[in-house]
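Risk register update: the risk of archive-format incompatibility is retired. Evidence:
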Amino acid sequence: MTDNNNLIVYCELEDGRVADVSLELLTKGRQLAKELGVKLEALVIGNNLEGIEEQIFPYGADVVYKVDDERLYPYRTNPHASVLINLFKEIKPQICLMGATCIGRDLGPRVSSALHSGLTADCTSLEIGDHTDPKTQKEYKDLLYQIRPAFGGNIVATIVNPECRPQMATVREGVMKKEALTEPHTGEVVNLDASKYVDPEAFAVEIIDRHIEKSKVNIKNASIIVAGGYGVGSKENFDLLYELANTLGAEVGASRAAVDAGFAEHERQIGQTGVTVRPKLYIACGISGQIQHIAGMQESSMILSINNDPNAPINTIADYVITGNLEDVIPKIIKYYKKNSK
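Archived output:
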């Protein structure tokens, strides 16, 4: 294989299906690859991968690399890292994207460290652009802009990697939009032999037992979300939010500050360090609107802010603002909703 300079997405598997975050990255990767004039490639590692490419081609991949071996599922760090490191030395992609999942967070740093390539975690945006080194004045064309909040969310940083390849970034589920192509699309399948990329020693660690707890909360796919921040004031006051959510058929979410204060469980956390959501209606209760939280909900179709601070930053992105105390406002919303939906 020759130096292809393409963009590659590591596709994670969940119960024989390609994870949503990987399909979201293929959608974004397709746009970036088109801008760069290169191919979009996908890499799948696992067992029983027969026909897995049928899930990937609709998202625009030109090439799907498959490494199918019974020893490669479920995921283990060393074998998977070996495949990526050795394959990347061979095909030399210019960009590699992967989900900021448990697997991506484990795999990404190992691969970037072995290839001395650098890695930006938890990107909220990816773009292509040019860069001039302020010291040497050297110009670089078509770099990957890896954009994420930094310094506690006080600024949005754009990180570039001028010299080392691949340029690697991880992105959380829900940050990018998942969109299949409207026209049928197919590409090339390249089957790779695991033993060519993985030494037998890499399989020394065995998985004795594997247990995955499914989340009971499904805020990611909720069409209406009632979210509470530190301004809700207490765990008891969060009961008001649950009451409103039950009335509207909604899910309850929370900001990091509310979760840290013990008002809500961690799986309800929305934002840069939680879940990214795109509901039809987002009701933000007592949420100030830190940049990390906004990163996780700004794509909502409609945002209603209820806050006793008229200058809360979230009000600048809200479609409707109600200034007042939650204890007064929420019971009125429930009352009028019930009255008008009979």
